[in-house]
Amino acid sequence: MKLVIATVLFFLGFAQICRGQTNGTTNPVNSQESAAAFSTNSYAVLGATPQQEALGRSQIQAMQPDALPLRIVFLPHWKYVDTARIFRLHVPAGFTSALFTHLPSRTVFIDADRYVSDESLGYWLAHELGHLATNSVKEDDAERAARKYRKRLEDASKRAALKQLQSAR
Questions:
Q1: Is 62:152 a contact under the CB 8 Å cutoff?
Q2: For residue 17, is it within any domain?
């Protein structure tokens, strides 16, 4: 017991002497250091091709959601099914899902093999962002929030088509 007490006191005393490389102040940050600027695209896109990532980011930017996810994960179908099972995703009988959101981790999972087109990705991504905005698992709440996101996405695609038409003249 005496050996243990002596060892603890030795290391506590040694820690006071060895303060590491410090500048003598107790402030952890000096006046020249600052935190990195907050980015509006502060979410990670994992497992996507460059085209899928660019499309997803542009659609989310056009939708201007109230809450951003922390991660968007594109998964092959077998991995998506396994992930849905692990998170105990409840899908009504006769239905399937190509995307789902895990609210506690603010992660959107996308079945990369099953979303049909670029437009369908935006449509269903708006629904998942609706879950995040309302912080609710209820489908009706997510759909209510998704309506305004889909409208913003539609308006942005109309503006892009008009701009492309004008540049072709």
A1: yes
A2: no
